[in-house]
Design a protein that fits this description.
4 helices, 19% helix, alpha/beta
Length: 280
């Protein structure tokens, strides 16, 4: 791990940049360092990266998160339930661990362990920062926000709202969610079960799986990861799918489904090296 990449991850941890900016900086730094080593700069078309090589790269942020947890976790953690009755929006940033996001009742609440747990309120915006987190964030209906992580896994279940998830590594899991979402990851897989509404899921190296339950607009794009999308019969389908180097399997019999329901499913699926497949 070069000093330059460490600096980029530190900026992400401190909230100075977001996951998309970290991805661009890491790509730029990696490209410069590779020119002086064994790596040969690619031609106009990027070469397809072997999966095992990609996976070796992906574990680097996890190793950083584990080292941070080992260094600070022994100093103790804040455990229990903390409520934030005045918050109308949230921004939570974690380095390692696990974060679950679930529906709440009347106020935002955090249950579990976090070391350290630093909070701040500015107007109606709640900010939570933690190095090592294993807990659950409960949010009432109508509350939106952002969850950013370095190597922590992020899971959301039963959420209807406007949310954004930013990841460096670690996996993202959604189940029975709806609304307007954006997910941006550098590596790690994204699995979205039972979603309806508006979704933009983007990953550099991870695979993305999306199962749609209703009409809406869905954009999925990757660099090296594969894309799988399933949707229900009966809706009008508008689809644009292409991969520069991968295989595209649109399952034409599904695309031409008979329209029996109101609403339209709009799909934009893009990859550079990954495969794209429509599943049952």
């Amino acid at each position: 791990m070069s000093d330059e990449i460490m600096k980029v991850l530190k900026l992400l941890e401190n909230g100075k940049i977001n996951a998309e900016e970290a991805e661009r900086l890491i790509s730029a730094v990696s490209g410069q360092s590779r020119k002086t080593g064994f790596y040969v700069p690619p031609p106009q078309k990027p070469p397809k990266m072997p999966k095992d090589f990609v996976r070796k790269i992906e574990i680097i942020p996890d190793q950083i998160g584990q080292a941070i947890s080992a260094a600070f976790g022994s100093m103790g953690s804040n455990a229990g339930r903390t409520t934030f009755p005045d918050a109308k929006e949230f921004a939570i940033k974690v380095v390692s661990g696990n974060l679950d996001i679930v529906p709440g009742e009347d106020e935002i609440a955090f249950d579990g362990a976090a070391w350290p747990m630093k909070t701040a309120m500015e107007n109606d915006l709640l900010s939570i920062n933690s190095i090592n987190t294993n807990g659950t964030l409960s949010i009432p209906a109508g509350i939106g926000g952002t969850a950013s992580a370095v190597s922590a896994d992020v899971r959301a279940k039963g959420i209807d709202g406007e949310l954004r998830i930013e990841q460096v590594s670690g996996d993202v899991r959604l189940e029975n969610c709806s609304g307007e979402w954006k997910i941006v990851t550098v590596s790690g897989d994204v699995k979205i079960e039972s979603f309806s509404g508006k979704m933009h899921a983007r990953s550099r190296n991870g695979d993305i799986s999306l199962k749609i339950t209703g009409p809406g607009e869905y954009i999925v794009d990757t660099i090296t990861g594969d894309i799988e999308v399933g949707y229900p019969d009966g809706y009008a389908i508008e689809m644009n799918a292409k991969s520069r180097e991968g295989i595209v399997d649109l399952a034409e019999n599904r695309v031409s489904t008979v329209v029996t329901k109101e609403g339209k499913i709009s799909l934009i699926l893009k990859s550079v090296n990954g495969n794209i497949k429509i599943i049952e």
